[in-house]
Amino acid sequence: MVRHEFHGALIGTIAQRRNADGVILFRAQIRLKEGGELTLSESKTFTRRALAQEWQRRRAAEIEEVQATGLPVHGLVTLKQILQDYVSDAKGIVAWGRSKTADITCLQKA
């Protein structure tokens, strides 16, 4: 496994593996951590290491370009975050009972 560190907490790895047919494949992965939490994780599999490295470099440049604009890099959104947004947007607009409140609370804990 080859690990590349880009700017900040953007980390890329390339792992070699064999598929069921015995063909060697290379999985390129890019992960971004912000504030100690994983915010983005992407991976793609290639038949050649050079292709995996090129994708990784290109994707890292795209992510860094978005970061340079000051916009958030969207990647992983948790169910908890989606439910929190839903509750805050629907509050006062939609009325619901105890059952829905309990279900949302249960899902947020999962």
Kindly describe this structure:
The protein has 110 residues and is an alpha+beta fold. It folds into two domains: 2-68, Nuclear Transport Factor 2, Chain: A (Roll), CATH 3.10.450; 79-109, no CATH class. The protein has three helices and four strands; from the N terminus they run E-E-E-E-H-H-H. It has helices at residues 49-68, 79-90, 98-109; strands at residues 2-5, 10-18, 24-34, 37-46. A four-stranded antiparallel β-sheet has the order 1-2-3-4, with helices on one face. Helix 2 (79-90) runs antiparallel to helix 3. 9% of the residues are buried.
In short:
This protein has helices at 49-68, 79-90, 98-109, and strands at 2-5, 10-18, 24-34, 37-46. The chain has 110 residues and is of the alpha+beta class.
Q: Could you give the count of β-strands? A: 4
Residue stretches low in confidence (pLDDT < 50, at least 5 long) are none
The mean pLDDT is: 84
Predict the CATH topology of the largest domain: Nuclear Transport Factor 2, Chain: A
